[in-house]
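Box 3.1 A note on notation
Throughout this textbook, protein chains are presented in two layers. The first layer is the amino acid sequence; the second is a token string describing backbone geometry. Keep the layers aligned when reading.
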Amino acid sequence: MFKWIFAVGGFFLLGRRFSGAFLGFIVGGFIDNYQTVISKAKAQAKSEGREFKSEDLFQYYQQRSSQNDVPTIIMALSAAVMKADGKVVKSELDYVKQFLKQQFGENYSNTHLQTLKHFLESGEIPLDQICSDIKMRMQPEVRMQLLHYMFGIAKADGLVSESELNVMNVIASMMGVSNVDFESIKNMFYRNADSDYKILGIDSSATDDEVKKAYRKMAIKFHPDKVASMGEEYEKGAKEKFQQIQSAYDNLKKTRGIK
């Protein structure tokens, strides 16, 4: 059902383009397949006379993600960030719940949280395998949106810790997100004196013309239309990034007197 709803939505959101309908169809299929995949995985474990264990973690991920299951990808990455500083706090869990509710609507259920719980209770999450899978299957703008989402989790308690930052840096690198793009997103959450420059992917020695060019480049790269077919919450995150790019540029124009 959702594949057809998203297909129609994608068609109109991307200017009546069939590419938008196709992307919407895929995203809707992610949602439609989720409950089916979970049921089959449980039935398989039961038929083998065993319960799910932490050593089966990547197989658990792979069974679902191989069928284009975005919620499992999100839960794996969420757990990695939430576990990074050695404690899982309520504000982080609330952030994930809110994202799931807004992204998946009525199809959001406790099954999503059970998947998150499996990853949280596991030992070491196989991020290299998971991120390699993501890099192969997802477009760069979607990977950057996932990174933006992870920073949102880390900042949910008011502070992005060094351990969380390190984990996200590793994840970004394994997903194929460039260091410039990582620093741009990082400085939207983890600000310092040079953050406006880093958000635009440049340093403070840049000329005024280089500032203008960097702004145009980032505005195109992070435009919300890039993820319009991925759902409301992805688009919301993209709009936040776009607004921060605009704000960084406005700040630099004012500081430098750029016309």
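Residues 248 and 254 are 10 Å apart (CA to CA). The longest helix spans residues 18-47.
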